[in-house]
Amino acid sequence: MKKYILIATALLCMAACKEAPKEQKVMARHVPERMDDFVFENNLIAGRIYGEALEGNPTGPGVDIWVKMPGKLVADQWYAAAQEDPEYYHHNHGDGKDCYKVSTTLGGGASCILVNGEFCKPATNWRSYEILEQSLEKVVFVLNYPEWEAYGEKIALSKKITVVADSYFCKVEDSYTFSGELGDSLDVACGVFRHPAQETIEQELASDNFYAIWEHASDQSIEPEDGMLGVAVVLPDNADYAGLSATEDHGLCVKRIKSGDPFTYWFGSCWSKADIKTASAWFEQVEEWCEQVKM
Fold first, then answer.
1. For 260, which DSSP code?
2. 53-81 burial code (b ≥16 CB/10 A, e <16)
3. How far is Cα 26 from Cα 149, in angstroms, rounded to an integer?
4. Contact 119, 190 (CB under 8 A)
């Protein structure tokens, strides 16, 4: 009898495990209820990119990093709460918050055309989007920036981002199309903004395919934050240049590309109040990722 009871118990456990719903570990969506944000998230990191309704306040392609505790997805909850309290996600309610200032910079990992050391950023925020793939552990979406003019060039951008579960990094495939006076190839830079008041620590470059920093997480006055933030951009092969921008407010990785060719890189982030506690641990994580994606 005992044998049959054990077998029955085992079968019930197997059935329960088989029927248990799998956990959603990624998400990405347009947020029309909050100024056309486009939010993305996995179980470790989150962020957003500014849309049309926010143009002028600000207009910029930068990646706005949200710090969060590992585990559950939080973006939908934060946006819902912000309908009652617009400052909700600027305060830490135990699961993280938005404490990262982007403004018109590249933020935590955007790219742009670089001419004579100057950024040629889009004239608008993203204007259309498409979600190409969505599952429990992976989401792929595209943000389109309409044509703008700079230095005699007509430039347009289609930005493809892949978010997967259990990773501090998101893959980006930026397709710039351009035509004009500067020839059939231009420099493109992906980068991270170095907040001047945040005592930024740079990783000494072990190779020319990444730029990584560690700095105080908040420059917001809404709620002071004593945590630290790690941010990085990583190329799959060596950059033509990796270092500071001409104004020294960004760390960049630069490659020369032809019109229509994909510019592929990864951006990533972490928060010291989550599970990467120190600069050395973050820089080690970045170097390991560099080796993983190296061509």
1. T
2. ebbeeebbbbbbbbbbbbeebbbeebbee
3. 35
4. no
Dist CA 246 CA 119 (whole Å): 10
Q: What span, in angstroms and rounded, lies between the C-alpha atoms of 216 and 72?
A: 24
DSSP string, 15-26: HHHHHSPPPP-E
Compute the distance between CA of residue 289 and CA of residue 206 in angstroms, rounded to an integer.
13
Closest CA to 236 of 168, 165, 173, 178: 173
**Is the confidence at residue 278, as pLDDT, over 70?**
yes
- Residues 6 or more apart whose CB falls under 8 angstroms from that of 73 comprise 24, 25, 26, 27, 41, 42, 43, 46
Pick the CATH number of 26-293 from 2.30.30, 1.10.101, 2.40.50, 2.70.98: 2.70.98
Residues across the chain: 295
The two three-digit tokens of residue 201, written as one number: 């620590």
Tell me: the pLDDT tens digits for 12-35?
A: 455 544 555 689 999 999 999 999
Run of H or E including 3: helix 2-19
Contact 157, 173 (CB under 8 A): no
Give pTM, 2 decimals: 0.92
